From TrEMBL:
Region annotated Disordered, chain positions: 1-65
GO CC field: centriole; ciliary basal body; ciliary tip
Coiled coil: none
InterPro entries noted in UniProt: ARMC9 (IPR040369)
Any single biological process term in GO: cilium assembly
Protein name, entry field: Uncharacterized protein
Composition bias, Low complexity: 38-61
Length: 316
């Protein structure tokens, strides 16, 4: 019949035809694909829900760029602390921090005697400087947390570089008092903080801001008979990082930094061998002679100073 011939085969007949067909024909038969379940009216696609969660402020999933910059790169030989991705900095009142610095430093400058009150003031100031440094140095390298730590310190003027207030002992700045008037832990921790800030662009611009006496204080803190290898290491590191700027390099040449670094490097022989034990001793200040770090940063400082006209004349 024509009508019967024109009818489409049913599913059972189709399966029978598949079984009777040759193998090369059966491979070409297309199976019907199951349709995805229809979404209900109240449900939303998973992609849009996840994007809204990642874009929301209170969502548990961080934004892709923020999560990317919060991840610390793998640095050989250095174990980075595990920071949570949602960790934020504690707000600080830098006006109170500066007042605490001034009160402690003025207490140390009032007398040369070492009593319980002076020891307590030195401990308080040094621990406060250390806490500020840890906000920068303990954040993952290249992370949003590290950048924000430096910028909040710059906005708050943590070292009072823009302050015109004079101390009771004269017109010197707070950095002068901490690097030149104070010794021991306060001087060492201040050098470490300046070195940590100088490692970033925002920190260098802050340390070299108009009216700042950081370069002058660092140059005055130079000691040809420096016995504290840790302090010398951070002093060299801070001077080398700041010498990238020509203005700072010219100032260092005028203050005699080039003669000091040249004398420091005289007679130094480095093997180039870097071992974990040597790096540990260098970091902990257990090596009495010039370490690899000091030699490298001293040579870099000498090269940077030789690039400015004053340095070229001194080198000749």
């Amino acid at each position: 019949d024509d009508a019967a011939a024109g009818e489409k085969p049913t599913r059972a007949e189709d399966a029978t035809l598949d079984e009777e067909a040759p193998s090369h024909v059966r491979e070409r038969v297309r199976r019907p694909r199951p349709r995805p379940p229809a979404a209900s009216a109240g449900s939303r696609p998973a992609s849009s829900a996840s994007s809204e969660t990642s874009g929301s402020e209170g969502g548990s999933v961080k934004r892709p760029l923020e999560a990317k910059y919060l991840e610390a790169p793998a640095a050989p030989g250095r174990v980075m602390p595990a920071y949570a991705e949602d960790q934020t900095l504690v707000r600080l009142d830098y006006r109170e921090v500066i007042l605490e610095f001034r009160s402690g430093v003025e207490r140390l400058l009032m007398t040369d005697a070492t009593g319980p009150e002076e020891e307590e003031a030195e401990s308080r100031v040094s621990r406060l400087v250390q806490a500020l440094r840890w906000r920068v140095s303990r954040a993952p390298e290249g992370s949003v947390l590290k950048v924000e730590a430096v910028r909040t310190m710059v906005r708050g003027d943590a070292l009072a570089l823009r302050s015109r207030q004079e101390s009771e002992r004269g017109s010197g700045s707070l950095v002068d008092a901490m690097l030149l008037g104070c010794r021991g832990r306060v001087r060492a921790e201040t050098l470490r903080l300046v070195n940590a800030l100088a490692a970033t662009g925002d920190g260098r611009r802050y340390l070299l801001s108009p009216g700042s006496r950081v370069v002058a204080a660092l140059a005055s803190a130079v000691d040809f008979n420096e016995q504290d290898t840790r302090a010398r290491r951070h002093l060299l590191g801070a001077l080398q990082k700041l010498s990238f700027h020509a203005v700072a390099a010219r100032r260092m040449c005028a203050l005699g930094v080039m003669g000091w670094v040249t004398r420091t490097l005289l007679g130094v022989v480095t093997t180039g061998e870097v071992t974990a034990e040597r790096l540990r001793k260098s970091r902990e200040g257990l090596i009495s002679h010039l370490s690899e770090y000091d030699a490298e940063h001293g040579a870099a400082l000498l090269m940077n100073l030789s690039l400015v006209p004053q340095g070229k004349r001194l080198a000749a």
